[in-house]
Amino acid sequence: MTLAMFASFIIHVLLGLPLFIALLVTAVVGFMFIDPAMIGRMVPQQFFGGINVFSLMAIPLFILAGNLMNSAGLTQQLMTLARVLVGHLRGGLGYVNVVSSVFFAGVNGSAVADTSALGSLLVPAMKKEGYSTAYAAGLTAGSSLIGPIIPPSIFMILYASLTNTSVGDLFLAGVIPGLLLGLAFMIMNWFYARKAQLPVSGQRPSAALFLQALLGALPALLAPFIIVGGIVFGVVTPTESGALTVAYVALVGLLGRQLSWSRFWSALVETARLTSAIFLIMAASAVISWLLSYAQVPKAFVVLFDPILEHPVLVLLLLSLITFVTGMFMEEVSALMLLTPIFIPVAMAAGVDPVHLGIVITLNITIALITPPMGACVFVAAAVSKLEITEMFKSIWPFVAVALLVLLILVLFPSLVLWLPALLGGAA
Protein backbone atom coordinates (compact mmCIF):
# COMPACT_ATOMS: atom_id res chain seq x y z
CA MET A 1 0.00 0.00 0.00
CA THR A 2 2.72 2.48 1.00
CA LEU A 3 4.70 1.88 -2.21
CA ALA A 4 1.56 2.29 -4.33
CA MET A 5 0.76 5.59 -2.59
CA PHE A 6 4.30 6.83 -3.07
CA ALA A 7 4.25 5.91 -6.77
CA SER A 8 0.88 7.61 -7.19
CA PHE A 9 2.14 10.80 -5.58
CA ILE A 10 5.28 10.97 -7.74
CA ILE A 11 3.35 10.31 -10.95
CA HIS A 12 0.73 12.97 -10.27
CA VAL A 13 3.29 15.57 -9.25
CA LEU A 14 5.23 14.90 -12.45
CA LEU A 15 1.99 15.29 -14.40
CA GLY A 16 1.75 18.82 -13.02
CA LEU A 17 -1.31 18.46 -10.81
CA PRO A 18 -1.63 20.96 -7.93
CA LEU A 19 0.04 19.48 -4.89
CA PHE A 20 -3.09 19.20 -2.74
CA ILE A 21 -4.89 17.30 -5.52
CA ALA A 22 -1.91 14.95 -5.92
CA LEU A 23 -2.05 14.30 -2.17
CA LEU A 24 -5.81 13.62 -2.24
CA VAL A 25 -5.47 11.22 -5.17
CA THR A 26 -2.69 9.47 -3.27
CA ALA A 27 -4.99 9.13 -0.26
CA VAL A 28 -7.72 7.61 -2.46
CA VAL A 29 -5.20 5.05 -3.71
CA GLY A 30 -4.43 4.13 -0.10
CA PHE A 31 -8.10 3.77 0.79
CA MET A 32 -8.54 1.40 -2.17
CA PHE A 33 -6.19 -1.03 -0.40
CA ILE A 34 -7.96 -0.74 2.97
CA ASP A 35 -11.66 -0.10 2.37
CA PRO A 36 -12.98 1.87 -0.64
CA ALA A 37 -16.26 2.46 1.21
CA MET A 38 -14.39 4.75 3.65
CA ILE A 39 -13.48 7.29 0.95
CA GLY A 40 -16.76 9.22 0.93
CA ARG A 41 -16.87 9.42 4.73
CA MET A 42 -13.26 9.80 5.88
CA VAL A 43 -11.74 11.99 3.17
CA PRO A 44 -14.06 15.00 3.77
CA GLN A 45 -13.95 14.48 7.54
CA GLN A 46 -10.15 14.40 7.78
CA PHE A 47 -9.71 17.10 5.11
CA PHE A 48 -11.71 19.55 7.20
CA GLY A 49 -10.52 18.23 10.56
CA GLY A 50 -6.87 18.66 9.58
CA ILE A 51 -7.25 22.44 9.51
CA ASN A 52 -10.06 22.83 12.06
CA VAL A 53 -7.55 23.61 14.81
CA PHE A 54 -7.67 26.94 16.64
CA SER A 55 -3.90 27.21 17.04
CA LEU A 56 -3.44 27.05 13.25
CA MET A 57 -5.14 30.44 12.98
CA ALA A 58 -1.82 31.85 14.13
CA ILE A 59 -0.33 31.03 10.72
CA PRO A 60 -2.27 33.56 8.60
CA LEU A 61 -1.92 36.16 11.36
CA PHE A 62 1.88 35.85 11.47
CA ILE A 63 2.00 35.91 7.66
CA LEU A 64 -0.15 39.07 7.67
CA ALA A 65 2.09 40.69 10.29
CA GLY A 66 5.13 40.08 8.09
CA ASN A 67 3.38 41.39 4.98
CA LEU A 68 2.21 44.51 6.80
CA MET A 69 5.72 45.14 8.07
CA ASN A 70 7.05 44.91 4.52
CA SER A 71 4.28 47.20 3.25
CA ALA A 72 4.93 49.75 6.00
CA GLY A 73 8.64 49.91 5.21
CA LEU A 74 9.66 48.68 8.66
CA THR A 75 11.84 45.93 7.16
CA GLN A 76 13.90 48.64 5.46
CA GLN A 77 14.61 50.09 8.91
CA LEU A 78 15.88 46.69 10.03
CA MET A 79 18.24 46.52 7.06
CA THR A 80 19.49 50.03 7.83
CA LEU A 81 20.32 48.96 11.39
CA ALA A 82 22.12 45.88 10.07
CA ARG A 83 24.22 48.10 7.77
CA VAL A 84 25.19 50.34 10.68
CA LEU A 85 26.14 47.36 12.85
CA VAL A 86 28.30 45.35 10.42
CA GLY A 87 28.36 47.14 7.07
CA HIS A 88 31.74 48.78 7.75
CA LEU A 89 33.58 45.44 8.12
CA ARG A 90 35.48 43.66 5.36
CA GLY A 91 32.81 41.73 3.48
CA GLY A 92 30.30 43.98 5.22
CA LEU A 93 27.40 43.44 2.84
CA GLY A 94 27.65 39.68 3.40
CA TYR A 95 27.32 40.27 7.12
CA VAL A 96 24.45 42.70 6.49
CA ASN A 97 22.73 39.93 4.54
CA VAL A 98 22.95 37.51 7.46
CA VAL A 99 22.14 40.02 10.22
CA SER A 100 19.14 41.29 8.24
CA SER A 101 17.89 37.71 8.02
CA VAL A 102 18.16 37.40 11.80
CA PHE A 103 16.14 40.60 12.25
CA PHE A 104 13.57 39.57 9.62
CA ALA A 105 13.19 36.16 11.25
CA GLY A 106 11.70 37.68 14.37
CA VAL A 107 8.93 39.27 12.33
CA ASN A 108 8.28 37.36 9.14
CA GLY A 109 9.35 33.74 9.68
CA SER A 110 9.24 33.01 5.94
CA ALA A 111 12.45 31.96 4.20
CA VAL A 112 11.01 32.58 0.74
CA ALA A 113 9.88 36.12 1.63
CA ASP A 114 13.28 36.77 3.18
CA THR A 115 15.09 35.59 0.03
CA SER A 116 12.91 37.76 -2.19
CA ALA A 117 13.07 40.93 -0.07
CA LEU A 118 16.79 40.80 0.74
CA GLY A 119 17.86 39.38 -2.62
CA SER A 120 16.32 42.16 -4.67
CA LEU A 121 18.16 44.78 -2.59
CA LEU A 122 21.42 43.17 -1.51
CA VAL A 123 22.46 40.90 -4.38
CA PRO A 124 22.98 43.78 -6.87
CA ALA A 125 24.84 45.76 -4.20
CA MET A 126 27.03 42.78 -3.32
CA LYS A 127 27.91 42.24 -6.99
CA LYS A 128 29.06 45.86 -7.25
CA GLU A 129 31.39 45.36 -4.28
CA GLY A 130 33.14 42.35 -5.82
CA TYR A 131 31.08 39.37 -4.65
CA SER A 132 30.43 36.73 -7.27
CA THR A 133 26.80 36.48 -8.34
CA ALA A 134 26.66 32.82 -7.29
CA TYR A 135 27.98 33.58 -3.81
CA ALA A 136 25.69 36.57 -3.28
CA ALA A 137 22.63 34.56 -4.35
CA GLY A 138 23.73 31.53 -2.32
CA LEU A 139 24.32 33.54 0.86
CA THR A 140 20.92 35.21 0.46
CA ALA A 141 19.17 31.84 0.10
CA GLY A 142 21.24 30.23 2.86
CA SER A 143 20.79 32.97 5.44
CA SER A 144 17.04 33.00 4.75
CA LEU A 145 16.88 29.61 6.50
CA ILE A 146 17.15 31.53 9.77
CA GLY A 147 13.60 32.81 9.20
CA PRO A 148 11.66 29.64 10.06
CA ILE A 149 13.99 28.80 13.00
CA ILE A 150 13.88 32.01 15.04
CA PRO A 151 10.26 32.55 16.16
CA PRO A 152 7.64 33.00 14.93
CA SER A 153 7.75 29.86 12.80
CA ILE A 154 4.96 28.36 10.70
CA PHE A 155 6.71 24.98 10.73
CA MET A 156 6.87 24.97 14.55
CA ILE A 157 3.18 25.81 14.83
CA LEU A 158 2.35 22.91 12.51
CA TYR A 159 4.61 20.54 14.47
CA ALA A 160 3.04 21.66 17.75
CA SER A 161 -0.47 21.04 16.41
CA LEU A 162 0.51 17.52 15.35
CA THR A 163 2.28 16.53 18.57
CA ASN A 164 0.61 18.61 21.31
CA THR A 165 3.98 20.18 22.08
CA SER A 166 4.10 23.65 23.63
CA VAL A 167 4.43 26.36 20.98
CA GLY A 168 6.15 28.59 23.54
CA ASP A 169 8.79 25.95 24.26
CA LEU A 170 9.40 25.42 20.55
CA PHE A 171 9.72 29.16 19.94
CA LEU A 172 12.24 29.47 22.77
CA ALA A 173 14.10 26.39 21.57
CA GLY A 174 14.54 27.95 18.12
CA VAL A 175 16.36 31.08 19.30
CA ILE A 176 19.83 29.61 19.91
CA PRO A 177 19.78 27.31 16.81
CA GLY A 178 18.73 30.30 14.68
CA LEU A 179 21.54 32.46 16.05
CA LEU A 180 23.97 29.55 15.62
CA LEU A 181 22.92 29.24 11.99
CA GLY A 182 23.50 32.96 11.50
CA LEU A 183 26.93 32.70 13.15
CA ALA A 184 27.87 29.81 10.85
CA PHE A 185 27.05 31.83 7.73
CA MET A 186 28.93 34.84 9.11
CA ILE A 187 32.03 32.67 9.62
CA MET A 188 31.62 31.42 6.05
CA ASN A 189 31.44 35.04 4.86
CA TRP A 190 34.57 35.91 6.87
CA PHE A 191 36.58 33.30 4.96
CA TYR A 192 35.08 34.32 1.61
CA ALA A 193 35.81 38.03 2.18
CA ARG A 194 39.49 37.32 2.78
CA LYS A 195 39.83 34.79 -0.01
CA ALA A 196 38.22 37.20 -2.51
CA GLN A 197 40.16 40.15 -0.99
CA LEU A 198 37.01 42.24 -0.68
CA PRO A 199 37.58 45.87 0.31
CA VAL A 200 36.46 47.37 3.60
CA SER A 201 33.12 49.03 2.84
CA GLY A 202 33.37 52.14 4.98
CA GLN A 203 34.20 53.73 8.31
CA ARG A 204 32.90 52.67 11.69
CA PRO A 205 29.59 54.50 12.29
CA SER A 206 29.35 57.17 14.94
CA ALA A 207 27.33 56.70 18.12
CA ALA A 208 24.79 59.23 16.85
CA LEU A 209 24.28 57.31 13.61
CA PHE A 210 23.91 54.04 15.50
CA LEU A 211 21.36 55.58 17.86
CA GLN A 212 19.39 56.99 14.93
CA ALA A 213 19.31 53.58 13.19
CA LEU A 214 18.35 51.83 16.41
CA LEU A 215 15.47 54.20 17.12
CA GLY A 216 14.24 53.84 13.53
CA ALA A 217 14.25 50.04 13.80
CA LEU A 218 12.89 49.89 17.36
CA PRO A 219 9.20 49.48 16.38
CA ALA A 220 10.11 46.47 14.23
CA LEU A 221 12.44 45.03 16.89
CA LEU A 222 9.68 45.10 19.50
CA ALA A 223 7.45 42.76 17.48
CA PRO A 224 9.39 39.54 18.32
CA PHE A 225 9.19 40.33 22.04
CA ILE A 226 5.41 40.75 21.75
CA ILE A 227 5.18 37.40 19.97
CA VAL A 228 7.48 35.28 22.12
CA GLY A 229 7.01 37.03 25.47
CA GLY A 230 3.22 36.86 25.37
CA ILE A 231 3.22 33.15 24.56
CA VAL A 232 6.02 32.07 26.90
CA PHE A 233 4.63 33.85 29.95
CA GLY A 234 1.09 32.66 29.33
CA VAL A 235 -0.43 36.07 28.63
CA VAL A 236 -1.79 35.09 25.21
CA THR A 237 -2.16 31.99 23.05
CA PRO A 238 -0.18 31.75 19.77
CA THR A 239 -3.29 32.81 17.83
CA GLU A 240 -3.91 35.77 20.12
CA SER A 241 -0.23 36.68 19.86
CA GLY A 242 -0.54 36.74 16.08
CA ALA A 243 -3.60 38.99 16.25
CA LEU A 244 -1.86 41.30 18.73
CA THR A 245 1.19 41.54 16.46
CA VAL A 246 -0.97 42.37 13.43
CA ALA A 247 -2.71 45.14 15.38
CA TYR A 248 0.62 46.50 16.62
CA VAL A 249 2.28 46.52 13.18
CA ALA A 250 -0.80 48.04 11.51
CA LEU A 251 -1.01 50.75 14.17
CA VAL A 252 2.69 51.61 13.85
CA GLY A 253 2.43 51.73 10.07
CA LEU A 254 -0.72 53.84 9.99
CA LEU A 255 0.43 56.29 12.67
CA GLY A 256 3.76 56.68 10.89
CA ARG A 257 1.87 57.26 7.63
CA GLN A 258 4.00 54.63 5.91
CA LEU A 259 1.17 52.13 5.54
CA SER A 260 -1.52 53.33 3.14
CA TRP A 261 -4.93 51.67 2.87
CA SER A 262 -4.07 50.37 -0.60
CA ARG A 263 -0.91 48.73 0.76
CA PHE A 264 -2.94 47.34 3.68
CA TRP A 265 -5.38 45.76 1.21
CA SER A 266 -2.51 44.33 -0.89
CA ALA A 267 -1.05 42.75 2.26
CA LEU A 268 -4.43 41.17 3.03
CA VAL A 269 -4.74 39.77 -0.49
CA GLU A 270 -1.21 38.33 -0.45
CA THR A 271 -1.85 36.79 2.98
CA ALA A 272 -5.08 35.17 1.76
CA ARG A 273 -3.33 33.79 -1.33
CA LEU A 274 -0.44 32.27 0.61
CA THR A 275 -2.61 31.02 3.48
CA SER A 276 -5.06 29.27 1.17
CA ALA A 277 -2.20 27.42 -0.53
CA ILE A 278 -0.72 26.33 2.79
CA PHE A 279 -4.04 25.22 4.29
CA LEU A 280 -5.06 23.21 1.21
CA ILE A 281 -1.79 21.29 1.43
CA MET A 282 -2.23 20.83 5.19
CA ALA A 283 -5.77 19.53 4.77
CA ALA A 284 -4.82 17.05 2.06
CA SER A 285 -1.78 15.91 4.06
CA ALA A 286 -4.00 15.35 7.10
CA VAL A 287 -6.04 12.79 5.12
CA ILE A 288 -2.90 10.80 4.30
CA SER A 289 -1.59 11.12 7.87
CA TRP A 290 -4.83 9.67 9.25
CA LEU A 291 -4.74 6.86 6.69
CA LEU A 292 -1.15 5.93 7.56
CA SER A 293 -2.03 5.98 11.25
CA TYR A 294 -5.11 3.80 10.62
CA ALA A 295 -2.91 1.34 8.72
CA GLN A 296 -0.50 1.33 11.71
CA VAL A 297 2.42 2.48 9.59
CA PRO A 298 3.99 4.43 12.53
CA LYS A 299 4.04 1.25 14.65
CA ALA A 300 5.71 -0.65 11.83
CA PHE A 301 8.23 2.17 11.55
CA VAL A 302 9.08 1.86 15.26
CA VAL A 303 9.75 -1.87 14.76
CA LEU A 304 12.23 -1.06 11.99
CA PHE A 305 14.16 1.18 14.39
CA ASP A 306 14.02 -1.28 17.28
CA PRO A 307 17.70 -2.38 17.01
CA ILE A 308 18.96 1.19 17.55
CA LEU A 309 16.37 2.64 19.95
CA GLU A 310 18.96 2.63 22.73
CA HIS A 311 21.01 5.16 20.74
CA PRO A 312 18.92 8.35 20.45
CA VAL A 313 21.63 10.25 18.55
CA LEU A 314 21.73 7.55 15.89
CA VAL A 315 17.93 7.60 15.71
CA LEU A 316 17.91 11.37 15.19
CA LEU A 317 20.61 11.10 12.51
CA LEU A 318 18.61 8.50 10.57
CA LEU A 319 15.37 10.48 10.92
CA SER A 320 17.25 13.56 9.72
CA LEU A 321 18.57 11.69 6.71
CA ILE A 322 15.06 10.53 5.78
CA THR A 323 13.71 14.06 6.23
CA PHE A 324 16.51 15.59 4.17
CA VAL A 325 15.99 13.24 1.23
CA THR A 326 12.20 13.60 1.43
CA GLY A 327 12.45 17.38 1.54
CA MET A 328 14.51 17.41 -1.65
CA PHE A 329 11.55 16.07 -3.61
CA MET A 330 8.45 17.13 -1.64
CA GLU A 331 6.95 20.47 -0.69
CA GLU A 332 7.99 21.37 2.87
CA VAL A 333 4.58 21.71 4.56
CA SER A 334 3.35 18.37 3.20
CA ALA A 335 6.64 16.68 4.15
CA LEU A 336 6.32 17.97 7.72
CA MET A 337 2.66 16.91 7.95
CA LEU A 338 3.37 13.42 6.65
CA LEU A 339 6.62 12.62 8.43
CA THR A 340 5.92 13.99 11.93
CA PRO A 341 3.16 11.48 12.89
CA ILE A 342 5.46 8.66 11.75
CA PHE A 343 8.59 9.99 13.45
CA ILE A 344 7.17 10.96 16.83
CA PRO A 345 6.54 7.37 18.09
CA VAL A 346 10.10 6.41 17.12
CA ALA A 347 11.57 9.43 18.89
CA MET A 348 9.50 8.81 22.03
CA ALA A 349 10.58 5.17 22.10
CA ALA A 350 14.21 6.31 21.86
CA GLY A 351 13.78 8.86 24.66
CA VAL A 352 14.19 11.94 22.45
CA ASP A 353 12.65 15.11 23.83
CA PRO A 354 9.74 16.20 21.57
CA VAL A 355 10.98 19.81 21.61
CA HIS A 356 14.43 18.67 20.49
CA LEU A 357 12.86 16.56 17.75
CA GLY A 358 10.72 19.51 16.68
CA ILE A 359 13.74 21.78 16.16
CA VAL A 360 15.66 19.05 14.32
CA ILE A 361 12.74 18.36 11.99
CA THR A 362 12.05 22.08 11.50
CA LEU A 363 15.66 22.81 10.54
CA ASN A 364 15.70 19.74 8.29
CA ILE A 365 12.54 20.82 6.51
CA THR A 366 13.90 24.35 6.25
CA ILE A 367 17.16 23.17 4.66
CA ALA A 368 15.01 21.57 1.96
CA LEU A 369 14.15 25.11 0.84
CA ILE A 370 17.67 25.48 -0.58
CA THR A 371 18.24 21.93 -1.84
CA PRO A 372 17.76 21.11 -5.52
CA PRO A 373 15.61 20.21 -7.33
CA MET A 374 12.54 21.50 -5.38
CA GLY A 375 13.99 24.16 -3.06
CA ALA A 376 11.81 27.26 -3.42
CA CYS A 377 14.48 29.65 -2.13
CA VAL A 378 16.91 28.44 -4.80
CA PHE A 379 14.52 29.46 -7.56
CA VAL A 380 13.77 32.82 -5.93
CA ALA A 381 17.47 33.57 -5.42
CA ALA A 382 18.22 32.63 -9.03
CA ALA A 383 15.43 34.91 -10.24
CA VAL A 384 16.43 37.99 -8.24
CA SER A 385 20.13 37.54 -9.10
CA LYS A 386 19.42 36.75 -12.78
CA LEU A 387 21.51 33.58 -12.44
CA GLU A 388 20.85 30.45 -14.50
CA ILE A 389 19.08 27.87 -12.34
CA THR A 390 21.61 25.19 -13.28
CA GLU A 391 24.42 27.44 -12.06
CA MET A 392 22.45 28.10 -8.87
CA PHE A 393 22.04 24.36 -8.33
CA LYS A 394 25.82 23.91 -8.57
CA SER A 395 26.76 26.80 -6.27
CA ILE A 396 24.23 26.24 -3.46
CA TRP A 397 25.81 23.10 -1.98
CA PRO A 398 28.43 24.81 0.25
CA PHE A 399 25.57 26.69 1.93
CA VAL A 400 23.64 23.43 2.33
CA ALA A 401 26.75 21.90 3.92
CA VAL A 402 27.00 24.76 6.45
CA ALA A 403 23.34 24.33 7.42
CA LEU A 404 23.79 20.56 7.74
CA LEU A 405 26.81 21.12 10.00
CA VAL A 406 24.65 23.24 12.31
CA LEU A 407 21.99 20.51 12.23
CA LEU A 408 24.62 17.93 13.24
CA ILE A 409 25.72 20.12 16.16
CA LEU A 410 22.11 20.42 17.36
CA VAL A 411 21.65 16.64 17.16
CA LEU A 412 24.85 15.98 19.13
CA PHE A 413 24.27 18.69 21.75
CA PRO A 414 20.57 18.76 22.76
CA SER A 415 21.29 21.33 25.49
CA LEU A 416 21.70 24.00 22.79
CA VAL A 417 18.03 23.45 21.99
CA LEU A 418 16.60 22.68 25.42
CA TRP A 419 18.46 25.15 27.65
CA LEU A 420 16.37 28.24 26.93
CA PRO A 421 12.96 26.49 27.23
CA ALA A 422 14.08 25.00 30.54
CA LEU A 423 15.24 28.40 31.78
CA LEU A 424 12.36 30.62 30.67
CA GLY A 425 9.65 28.02 30.18
CA GLY A 426 10.06 26.98 33.77
CA ALA A 427 9.88 30.62 34.83
CA ALA A 428 6.49 30.93 33.19
In words, what does this structure look like?
The protein has 428 residues and is mainly α. 78% of the residues lie in helices and 0% in strands. Helix 1 packs antiparallel against helix 2, helix 5 packs across helix 11 (207-232) and helix 6 packs antiparallel against helix 7.
Short description:
The protein is an all-alpha fold and 428 residues long.
Radius of gyration: 22 Å
Number of strands: 0
Count of DSSP H/I helices: 21
- The computed structural class is mainly alpha
Beta-strand content: under 5%
The helix content is over 70%
Distance between the termini: 46 Å
Question: What's the oligomerization state?
Answer: single chain
List the helices and strands in order: HHHHHHHHHHHHHHHHHHHHH
Layout: helices, strands, pairs:
Blueprint: H1 2-14, H2 19-34, H3 39-49, H4 58-71, H5 74-86, H6 92-105, H7 111-128, H8 133-143, H9 154-163, H10 167-195, H11 207-232, H12 238-255, H13 261-294, H14 297-305, H15 312-329, H16 332-349, H17 354-367, H18 376-385, H19 389-395, H20 397-412, H21 415-427
Helix pairs in contact: 1-2, 2-13, 3-13, 4-12, 4-13, 5-6, 5-11, 6-7, 6-8, 6-10, 7-8, 7-18, 8-18, 9-16, 9-17, 10-17, 10-20, 10-21, 11-12, 13-16, 14-16, 15-16, 15-17, 16-17, 17-20
